[in-house]
Amino acid sequence: MSRLTSDFWVAAYRARLAALNIPVYISAKGDATAGAVLVKLCTLDGKACVYHRRLDLMSGARAWDVLIEGTEEECDASIQKQRGFDPDLWVVEVEDRQGRHCLGEEGLSG
């Protein structure tokens, strides 16, 4: 089974959030085909959480996991560090006071 390209996945994710009136922005555009994606969730109270996709080596399943959680400044510093290692990295920022990000929904793991 082939995987979706990064740009296609990001576009679909943006559309899903837009349908729920959840603001979403692309703060760093990575490699269109195979760039890794970080999702930063800002709860608009100075706190944030950054998610990344991980691969379960036993099952082969992909899942979203917390990379860092803390102040928005701490999360931004971690993202900058990650981008220093991987310039092809996408960074998607979600703003929602309720903490909704939809990453656990069907179709968003890949």
What does this structure look like?
The structure is a single chain. It is built from two helices and five strands; from the N terminus they run H-E-E-E-E-H-E. With 110 residues, the protein is of the alpha+beta class. Strand 2 (37-42) and strand 3 (47-55) form a beta hairpin. The protein starts with 5 loop residues before the first helix and ends in a 15-residue tail after the last strand. The relative contact order is 0.27.
Low-confidence stretches: none
Rg calc: 13 Å
Order of helices and strands: HEEEEHE
Please report which band the strand proportion falls in: under 5%, 5-15%, 15-25%, 25-35%, 35-45% or over 45%: 25-35%
Contiguous helical run count = 2
Going by helix content, strand content and strand pairing, the class is alpha+beta
Number of extended strands: 5
Mean pLDDT: 91
Q: Tell me, what's the shape? A: globular
CATH superfamily of the domain at 27-95: Protein of unknown function (DUF1491)
Distance between the termini: 11 Å
CATH architecture of the domain at 27-95: 3-Layer(aba) Sandwich
Major sheet characteristics: 5 strands, mixed
- Under CATH, the topology of the domain at 27-95 is which? hypothetical protein tt1805
Strand order of the largest sheet: 1-5-2-3-4
Top-tier CATH class of the domain at 27-95 = Alpha Beta
Q: How much helix, percentage-wise, in residues?
A: 25-40%
Q: What characteristics describe this protein?
A:
five-stranded mixed β-sheet; hypothetical protein tt1805; alpha+beta; globular; 110 residues
